[in-house]
Design goal:
Blueprint: E1 4-10, H1 19-24, E2 29-36, E3 40-41, H2 45-54, E4 58-64, H3 71-84, E5 93-97, H4 106-124, E6 129-133, H5 134-141, E7 150-153, E8 173-177, E9 182-187, H6 190-195
Parallel strand pairs: 1-2, 2-4, 4-5, 5-6, 6-7, 7-8
Antiparallel strand pairs: 1-9, 2-3, 8-9
Helix pairs in contact: 3-4
Length: 201
């Protein structure tokens, strides 16, 4: 049976993060918010990106989706922000935080997400994770995204036992708690996780 690898995710809401303390407590991977929409950049992202690296964690960056905006503009904004923080290294992870519909119908939200993911995959050479909630996916907002690894927010479920919504058949990362910081598990080893990340061409 594969073991569970422990991780956290953070954004500007956490402020300054003590990465060495998290590493000492057994955290092996982390995601930090980089951008939102086409113009917002998380002011803590660069510091978090470097802090994760210095603590030998598997590094992840995520973009908070604003489906009313242009997915191409948002993808470029995200990639520019990562480059400004030092760029991607082998094994780094990328994710799309898909939890807001901006008042759009599900088919338009899903179309935005597919476009964003394909642009990232083509330009950065890494397949993004899709972070979402069960109810949001069940509403049709994630149609056509089954090829992307699922990072599911399911805090009501026991650790490592999330509900898996369609279109997925399995989960990859489970966010099982969000207090005092978002906590996640990955079903596998560090090597398994980095295989899902960036690999230079």
């Amino acid at each position: 049976m594969k073991k569970l690898l422990h991780g956290i995710d953070v954004s500007n809401w956490q402020g300054s993060v003590d990465w060495s303390e998290h590493a000492d407590s057994g955290i092996s991977f982390a995601f930090s918010k980089a951008t939102e929409g086409g113009g917002f950049t998380d002011k803590w992202f660069q510091r978090n990106w470097h802090g994760m690296r210095e603590s030998w964690m598997v590094c992840g960056a995520y973009h908070f989706a604003r489906p009313k905006g242009d997915p191409a503009d948002q993808a470029q904004h995200f990639l520019r922000t990562i480059r400004a923080a030092g760029g991607l290294r082998k094994g780094d992870l990328i994710a799309l935080d898909l939890e807001a519909d901006d008042g759009l119908p599900p088919d338009q939200v899903a179309r935005y997400a597919r476009r964003w993911c394909r642009i990232i995959e083509k330009q950065a050479g890494v397949r993004p994770f899709v972070y979402t909630y069960t109810w949001f996916a069940r509403s049709g907002n994630c149609a056509g995204l089954a090829e992307y690894p699922l990072w599911i927010a399911s805090p009501a479920r026991p650790r490592g036992e999330p509900v898996v919504p369609r279109p997925w058949n399995d989960w990859t990362i489970h966010q099982y708690s969000n207090s005092p910081v978002d906590r996640n598990v990955f079903h596998g080893s560090r090597e398994d996780l980095t295989r899902l990340g960036y690999h230079p061409r």
